[in-house]
Amino acid sequence: MSKPVIVVVGAGPGVSGSVARRFADEGHDVALLGQDQQVLDQLTTDLGARGAAVGHACLDVTDEEAARDAVRRFGEHTGRIDVLHFNPSAFREKDPLSLTVAELLADVALGVGALLTTVQAARPFMSAGARISVTGSMAADQPWERAASLGVQKAGVRNLVHSLDKTLAPDGIRAVSVTVRGSLARQGAFTPDRVADAIWDAVRTPEDEWRSEVPYDG
Fold this sequence. Notes:
This protein has one domain: NAD(P)-binding Rossmann-like Domain (Rossmann fold), CATH 3.40.50. The chain is about 45% helix and about 15% strand. It contains six helices and seven strands. It has a seven-stranded parallel β-sheet, with helices on both faces. The relative contact order is 0.15.
């Protein structure tokens, strides 16, 4: 297939949906991994109307075998993966004195571990110029103690992005975490569409200007 392909992990109605639409508008075909079949169907219809070929898989991305198989199927079908965008995180309103170890590890498995799973599955289909992007958050640096696991996830996924970028850079593949330093809203600088624009810009950064973390301050 001649069109570039983006795989959106954690596809939903917010930032990830806006990312899928932005890349579709820029000429990408789209593969979606998400948990809500109704949302996936709506996104598929929307993206198809924008001219994109769309595939989707409804699954729990913490199911390593299912997530690997889905990404592999997308790659085998398209022959290429040019961008992998990772969006999932778990919001659990528990402070550090009520959060259990099991809950923390379950949340990290979603917000950090699933990035490993999907990148490893996508790597055989990625070549020089391919990119990995992650929706980061100011919670990595300024955690809200009443949702303690979220800050751990965002700090962890940012750290993993730095390692991925260093590991893949010799092959011409780069990774970036876009740190959203504000609360998502329906209007203003932090709408999902504006964040998606920032992710698009980060992915399009020239190699000689590349940074593995890009802040988005609105």
